Amino acid sequence: MQVINLINKFNTLLVLILRHIAIWILAAMMFLTAADVCLRYIFNSPVSGSFELIEYMMALAVPFSIVFCAKEGAHVQVDILLDHTGKRFRSFIRFAGNIISLLLFSIIAWQSCIYVTEEHASKLTSSVLYIPVYPFIGALAAAFIILSLLTLAEIIYYLTGKGKWSR
């Protein structure tokens, strides 16, 4: 039981950190876009490389937000069929969904780790600002590793009968 509580505290801390990073990135994206538009139309001089910066920021904000949504159980789901079934069947479907999700998230994390090493070796950079690509792929890999840990924790909760489903 102490291991489960420790895992839950660790996951909560990781999700909290990623959530705050995603919030600040979204704020930076908003201000950069507003500055780019204002400078473009008022002074006819846009922010150089703003499109690249927004793309890279989005590559960080989306996976970090997905991790937060998974922890909070805030993903959109349609329960038209499951609403008319028993509680045990719904639990089984959620359990099976978590097993499939764990497999998918683990494969994405694994392949992203491989992709990071390939991009680091190739020294690929962006075309305007020459920003290396591999750190952003590494952040994606880290987000999916954390998402895999969250899903694994939820599966462990289900198997031990100690926790509740977040959805």
Structural class: mainly alpha
Given the C-alpha coordinates, what overall shape results? elongated
Number of domains: 1
- The amount of beta strand, in percent, is under 5%
One letter per element, helices H and strands E, the order comes to HHHH
Query: Residue ranges: pLDDT <50 for 5 or more in a row?
Result: none
Radius of gyration: 20 Å
- N- to C-terminal separation? 22 Å
Describe this protein's structure.
- The chain is mainly alpha-helical and 167 residues long.
- It has one domain.
- 76% of the residues lie in helices and 0% in strands.
- It contains four helices and no strands.
- The chain has helices at residues 2-42, 50-72, 87-122, 134-160.
- The chain starts with a helix and ends in a 7-residue tail after the last helix.
Features:
0% strand; mainly alpha; elongated
Question: What is shown here, in short?
Answer:
This protein is mostly helical. The longest helix has 41 residues.
